[in-house]
Protein 1
Amino acid sequence: MSLLSARLALGWLIGGEWRAHPARLALTAVAIAIGVALGFAVHLVNGSALSSFEGALRSVNGRADVQVNATTPFGFDEALYARVATATGVADASPVVVLRATAGTARFTLLGLDVIRAAQVTPSLIGIAPAGVDRRTDAAFDGQALFLSSAALRVLRVRPGDALTVAANGKATQLRVAGALPGVAEGQAIGVVDIATVQWRFGRLGRLDRIDVKQADGTSTAALTAILPRDATIGTSASDATRSDALSRAYRVNLDMLALVALLTGGFLVFSAQSLSVARRLRAFALIRTLGLPRNGIIATVALEGLAIGLIGSSLGLLLGYAVAYAALTRFGGDLGAGYFADGSVRLAFAPAAAVGFFLLGVFAAVAGSVLPARIAARVAPAAALRNAGDMIDPRTPVPWIPAAALIAVGGVAAQLPAIGGLPIFGFASMALILAGGIAGMPWLARTVLAPLARRSGRSVASDLAIHHLHGAPGQAATALCGIVASTALMIAMAVMVTSFRGAVDEWLGQILSDDLYLRVEGSSGFDPAAQAVLRATPGVAGIAFSRQVPLTLSADRPPVTLIARPVDARFVLLDKADRLPAGTIPIWLSEPAARLYNWKVGATVTLPLAGRYAVAGIWRDYARQQGAIVMRETDYSKATGDRTRTEAAITLQPGADPVRVEQALTARTPRGLARFVSIARPATLRRYALELFDRSFAVTYLLEGVAVLVGLAGVAATMSAQTIARTREFGMLRHIGVSKRQIVAMLASEGALLGLVGGIAGIALGGIMAQVLVHVINPQSFNWTMATRVPWGIVASVAGALVIAAAGTATLAGRRAIAADAVRMVREDW
Amino acid sequence: MPYPFTRRFKRLSTGLLAAAAVTLTAATPAATDYPTVRPGARFVFPREHGAHPAFRTEWWYVTGRLETREKRDLGFQITFFRTTPKTDPANPSKFAPKQILFAHAALSDPSVGHLLHGERAARAGFGLAQARIGDTDVSLRDWRIRRLADGRFVATVKTPEFALALTLTPRQPPLLEGKDGYSQKGPLPEQASYYYSVPHLAVSGSLTRKGTAQPVTGQAWLDREWSSDYLGGGAVGWDWTGLNLDDGGALMAFRIRGPGGRQIWAGGSFRRADGRVVRFAPGDVRFAALKRWRSPRTGAVYPVAQRLSIRLPEGVRRLDLNPLFADQELDARRSGMPVYWEGAVRTPGGSGYLELTGYADPLRM
């Protein structure tokens, strides 16, 4: 009988199974659906956020071929414009001043352009004066004329012809809305004013932030690179894309991995459900095999079932994932609350390739989860299977432990390998290998743990029976354990990592928030030296340390680091410190991510896009700025940049001073124009805020983790109940030889508890190892920060407890149902 | 004078400049900040060759004929414009748009059958674009026209399709148009420009096409004009011609057309070979179409061959103007420019350029 002619038999087998146990199959399909949905949703949200972010970047850039970008917010000397415009390979060049502007409470990007140059280089950035406004003026060169994108018109609630006071760089001026910017993409708040006006009115005389370049055909940027000073870099669309990708790539990849974990646990659920389904049908399979079905017929049958589950589950999952992504985007924004993409709305972009990918992954998980148990079943001789539907593994044959140990060992080695392209590929591989090794080692562990117990007897009938059953049917025990171990391990690994991270952040916040009050100016303006002196003289203030943070581009394809100018004293806690610095260098202190990203060591001399020679004096811990930060003495900063404005201040109060009073006094002494941008906070508030931010950015992590746990527990429950139901005959037999119903239930509860306990302990151990990979490999490689391990003992204990209770509970419940029928009928099942 | 600079300027940067251009063409009160063109100004050379930045608009407009070594006849046009927008004079920024410069170049080759052209525009400054005061020296990146100490003009332009490097040697003194350079453009006396021409410039230099340079010689006409407010309301376009006559005479004539082709104003001058000048009143000039050509691109119908009648003391003289080839329409809408016809023409006993504006669309006044 060929496979093809066995269609009828296969049809009966599958159809019969589905008619008999629709709920179980539906559950497995749902498990796959959840895995696919989560993976797809996370991917969609990330992809949409990234493309929106890149779209925003392209909008502001106006799609120039190449750009010369300033490395600091102070821009570069405008004389560079003439040199760039006449450089080899430059067809045209458009000078740009870029400012973050506010009008009322709305924020937008203000571009100062030369309309004639922009018309050639970045035509999407110039406006058209709509009919109806006064056409008897030099609208194009009118210093008052402000052209706004549709999004900016909306947020500012203005129409062409309206007057609007715009503030930027600490200065405000009145402009007139002259028209729209139809070339700017929807959703980007951009305003365009004549470049001369922006330079004059917003204090940027002599400075440019950007030069957009139109290249002559077939030329490289080499000639351009050669003439650039330190404070400018070349940017192309490729480097822009790399930079915006680098901004959040590690975060996105980690979320993708978590989503895959959910899919993996879904696969486990299919595996456990199908294992039992196969076990129950062994006799049926055997019968059909004796009638001529080839061995692979069984595999084909179960694989087809898996395929059906996969198809249904994956289709459901895609729909669900799309819905979840839509809900998440509208509710939390494109970075799911992690704060990577500050502004610009995100539109959900359907990703066909990803949809196909996740669909196939779901189908693959379901088919693989089905084929594995089927292969084991197919190996059993039909004659033996016909008579005995018990465990297929002989408890007397020793279980190999070498494959498991080898997998874990390889995983350990993989954890030592470096990141690839800033992504901890080997770290994830290591975790997968360790997990696989742990699961592969389960039969061996179950045997090793249960063997000594099985040798001893004399306890209650129920527990004796339970131990002997588990010991005698190691295949079933291992199947149930796999699900438990996998979900526990992942759950524990995540919990340990998040606890370690949160603990480290909390401790770090304690270190950095050592002053009494913190003051900060929002926006790009700040306190000039006079205002600083006024604030310093506030009654009740013992000390006030002003600081300034500015973005500093060190490399065109990386997001800028934050340059922090502040006083540096002994209170500055360092991870590493240079003993001495080269003579004539200015000390800078790198945050840990900055040191790792740019591979700078303490004591090394480095070049910054600022005047002077710099050397790394130390490395400090920072969990706030993933793209890196550099601390410089504020005196050195003023010398290098000439910038004496400060945007932040840390205040020490005199003993006994009332913080509330001082706060009020500080507010009163703030220059008038700045008052509404100034916020003052106490350390406790900031700490709470920072931890809230942390929790928000991990919200999705928690969610994914929770789903993985639920799917895992559902797998455990399904396994337990299926195993129990499959043993109806056994219970009938036990009843016949005098075991009471109560004892049977107790036996099942013990079995469940034992499985939960063994699985839980193994899972926790495995999870602990995986947590080390997460904390010490994946986290540093993804985010460039290190931390110490902190174990959440409470969570560990409750996970172990929950597992034991869930396993015992489901076994008991299923057992009650199984023994409800009378003993005679139960035995009759044995034919 | 009659160059459709206003329209060209208007559309240059896809509409943004529209309002500025409309200001140029309309008789607006804004012009009160600019000097008014009045009769009686005394031209001093070489000062007048240089820029007059106080005035709203100004141009250096060269048209002429080129002959290649193979004796092929070509027409060329090289034009530099300057405009002074109304801006806040207090703005200390080097980007302050105190002067805007534009340039345009076109080549008429009968074997090509249509115009080849290119353009430049920039605000003055940064050494990239400037118009010198005191003598001719206007440059826009790699485009430049300047007057050498010996009185010759040197012009260089580069477009993707051709490049010209020409030396223009004056052989006659400047011809002051209108009343000693005061050229009225409409019924109102302030609708006027300062205007002089330098006809019969001897041309030598090189023409580069497809990467190969070849020497060329020829004859050209320079128009210099500056004004703040020179077009009356109601005009939709104009016809203009400047002719170098073989006997050494020079003739310039223009008419400003209203709706339906009605002549609103006309003028011009004729300098005889002996140097005596006849100036034309509006009634002395008549343009009549001999042949019309319909542009397949724009559908505009241009009177590409015209009979020009001028009243001289000895009687009416008629000159038939025949184009080098019909399709000398400049359709530069792709680069935000207007559509008009600017072509090399021949006339019995002379040659020059004919300019026909406002035929594709009426000029917005």
Note: The domain at 5-356 of chain B is CATH 2.40.370.10 (AttH-like fold).
Protein 2
Amino acid sequence: MTPKATIRAEAQRLHAAFVAAGAVPVEADILLPAETLLDLYGEDIRARAYTTHDPLRGEMMLRPDFTVPVVQAHMAHGAEPARYCYLGEVFRQQDRASDRASEYLQVGFEVFDRSAPEAADAEVFALFQGMLADLALRPATGDIGILMAAVRGLDTTPRRRAALLHHIWRPRRFRALLDRFAGRAAVPAARVRLLERLAKGSPEALIAEAGTFVGLRSAEEISARAVALLEDAGEKPISAPEAAMLYDLLTLEAPAAAALAHLKGITPLLPAIALAVDRFAARLDALAARGVDVEALPFEASHGRTSLEYYDGFVFSFHAVDKGMPPVASGGRYDALTAVLGAGAFIPAVGGVIRPGLVARIRGLA
Amino acid sequence: MIKIGVPSKGRLMEQTFTWFGARGLTMRRTGNEREYAGAIDGMDGVELVLLAASEVPRELEAGRIDLGVTGTDLVREELADWTSVVTEVALLGFGQADLILAVPSVWVDVDTLDDLDAAATAFRAAHGFRLRIATKYHRLVREFLTENGVADYQLVDSLGATEGAVKNLTAEAIADITSSGETLRANHLKILSDGVILRSEAVLWASRGALRSEENRAAMGRLAGLLGVRSPV
């Protein structure tokens, strides 16, 4: 166990480096309203965050990360552009017996800047890489924006595109939906029976036949979805070449420069990703200008697609040699989150966090 | 002394007594009806502890009982990382019940988790809050829905009469234990075709933290021989 004082000293050193890079230190509450986090992450957050109860403010959660309070503070009264840094505890429930910490320090850096998103991506990554340079960490990068652009450009119904986008962070459901929309998975027997039933009578008649009406979900909502299901069943599958491109994209793993060449190669067949690929190219230029070796930098198009995340563009993480250790640092772009938390306002944002406890542990082992 | 925790009332108690009785270990309640005291005959060094089935997982975890009879559902709901806390000694062949996910029968458009997910997204857009699922099995239901990629729902706590939650407009769907499905039908609900979260049954469990002493290990060996099961230690 690394002594807490050693970890705090490491945290302060990292924090000072962020300040030196031009960030303004900010503080955030530890007790956050549960409702905001639940709205954002859904019920899954309950498995991760500690929930407690306040007699007046209702359900509260111990801060599981800084992003939400920092974004809220910026949206409420921040000037633009802004660079913030912070240092403090986060709290995470661990559901399995392990040596993973349930409270630990995080030091973070966030950039809110409208002018040049790719330059900001590169600034954050290069800053982190420089600060962690002596630890021999393995970087990983990705870009969820490319996958989202590919989905938005699919030649299929708006409903199918929306369903895929909604589940972009849930790879298993995304894959199941894509398999179904592309005609690669057989329609499940239960769905076939359901469609047969729906085809026989009007939804209203079926609802009446089904017995006593209970619940808040109205007959109109039920009928609307029944009609939508029938319409969807009549849709042609996503074309084989287009689907093949998307499967290719989901599994794309290559050094960044080679990945860019590959993506440029498939762009004529998948024109919707052109803008996102241009951004990827601009980011690699910006990274190279900051001395990052993009010929060797690992890139995975699906990196960062896990539940309880909100990144929608560039993503990155730094990993120790010990594979059992959580990422030492991670971050990415979360433009959509600022819109969700900003009540109409929106600003492009990118940032990341470092775990000083892991940095100190690796230093201690060296 | 090996302490065996057994449900203190109802069919589960009777069937447990029968199961042990058939293997030469006679269990009975002592004292009056309201007093949860019991005795066990047929082997020395074994003590009967009567308690609520829902208390058995925690008592096993704390090591206050060495063996205990309760359902798979309660062990997996109550104990985080249950496999590190208890081991299965024997499946008892009774207490079968399924933890299931059910929605109103009038939801003619919903038959699978895939449908539930789509309905939940539309529900949230229409009503401004996440579709409510009433249950007392929060951990099991959440893990199941996470595993299956269902979003836009919330769990609301229900301590009793869960099946009535939809009719009372406190939830849109429910997740509860059912053995026959009759109560569901009576409350105008249907089970999703892929909505079986867990098939539960009564199990004799051993606490991993207990049975450490030499004396108890020897006694457990004799008990396992008597019951015709493999000793957990």
Note: The longest strand of chain B covers residues 189-200.
